[in-house]
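Dear colleague,

As promised, here are the two records you asked about, laid out in our usual form so they can be pasted straight into your sheet.

NAME FIELD: protein one
SEQUENCE, THEN STRUCTURE:
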Amino acid sequence: AISGATLSMNGYKYKLIVSGSCSPNDESPEVTLTVNPRPTSVITGSTTVCENTPATISIALTGTAPWNFTYSDGTTTSSTITTSSSTYTFSVSLASTKTYTVTSLTDANCTAASGDRTGSAVITINPLPTITGTLSACVGSTTQLSGSATANPTTPWSSASTGVATISNTGLVTGVSAGTSVISYKNTNGCIKTETVTIHALPTVSIPNTNQSLCLNLTPPSITTLTPTTFTTISTYQWYSNASASTSGGTAVSTSSTFTPPNINAGELYYYLTVTNNNGCVATSNVSGSIKVF
């Protein structure tokens, strides 16, 4: 048997010669020594990516196919992989930084020593940012969102459906129409977090605008009750009186769903109504007709 063979001995020729007191010597047929190189592997692919973003790792193999090998991320070792290709690639999506190395390797002829398995792939993970703030608003109103870490200096915020909601570079969302839109926030590492913003429709409300006249302190008042017409579910009502035909600057007078103007003071007043729906969205009615008390 030949032990300690090295690659430099590949191709050496050997034969056995038996000699003794008799002639001639007896010789065996000549044989040629074949020394196969051990397989090697080099793993590469170190990179920095955002959390859960795919990263590609490559393993270059030498030797005689097929190869059988395993790799590890420092915690978990893969099952045995068999390949006939001298380059093997795989993709990982990680939540934390890990280092990949080849942990075992054989080819069709030999087993690699630890020094034959070189290189490492360090996948450095940048965490995703977070979005905080109220993820809903009413049409025509705003909600302020905030992103963690340092915002991308160019386009930190974007809205997938600007017909539903727009967003400024400071994270101020403005409701445009009822629906949902995916809001994206990007930090300086280029990592992106998304959240869905819901824009609620405004309620609609109208009240009668007929002029009415009634007598002072007449019981019962000879006036038609103001009954609003509304759409969507209304949770609160607030009636206002006003000395002018305006829907601003009035005095709160009632929180009932309908309102009968009083006739205890002479003069002329106008009325209007604000309503709030179950989503907290507010709308204001038209102004009523003139209500005169004589």
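NAME FIELD: protein two
SEQUENCE, THEN STRUCTURE:
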Amino acid sequence: PPPPPPPPPPPPFQAEDGIRDTNSGLVGSEMCIRDSNEAELERERLLPLQEVVEKARAAKHNGASRFCMGAAWRNPTDRNLDKVIEMVEAVHALGLETCVTLGMLTQQQTQRLKLAGLDYYNHNLDTSPEYYGDIITTRSYQDRLDTLEHVRDAGINVCCGGIVGMGEQEEDRVSLLQQLANLPQHPQSVPINMLVQVEGTPLHGVEKLDSLDFVRTIAIARILMPESWVRLSAGRTEMSDEMQALCFFAGANSIFYGDKLLTTTNPDENHDRVLFDKLGINAADTTQDMDTLATA
């Protein structure tokens, strides 16, 4: 028989900018739990709407095609969701794709976000089902899958990946990628995060993941989910240019572009531009229609 056709090419390179805040950030997980007596992380208020709009406008000017807003909540209250919806509508009006990450959602909350014009919702599985109980205690794996189902049913694109370098075994990374690939639909965006160790948190001091093992994780994600955006997210500040280049060549075609992730810093935007120039990578063109993207 003739050989099977080759898989479809991955989407072109995408830069996503965004803002995250730590309001109500007491999430019961080993990798990101913040106790004021240990990590000395203060809660923050949601940013004012106008400040969000200004940051989104600057992000678009700098080449981002999607703007992500997030808060470290277990789940949003309806009152807080009202404020987030105002932000989604304002950013959407700028011609940017919108993404939020707010924790677990009810079906009704998901429908409200869809009506506001939300394009993507980020809700990670974090790790394998087998290792999950060693890391997270305040919600079940099924809770996360239920939120992802609400998001899909509402017609919102799914942004779902995980965190590696949390002391998991190779089998756990394989199992995480299997879970992602076996969802009813591949996530449109798959962020692969490297744990950023924060002093005072339970996972501070765990053995760091070997760089090539991280690159292999990127490569397998690309093979299993050929049409998804595979995004380098947290941990890039600790990666050399050479390691990031290997990730791009292994299949990563998206980064989170901005000064801060949920609670950790991100590489300087000027440094990213210099690296892209060295590698010949072109970001998405936001001056044209959202479906028209530059090639990498």
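A couple of things worth noting about protein two: Confidence is low (pLDDT under 50) at residues 15-41, 260-266, 286-296. DSSP finds nine helices and nine strands in the chain.

Best,
R.
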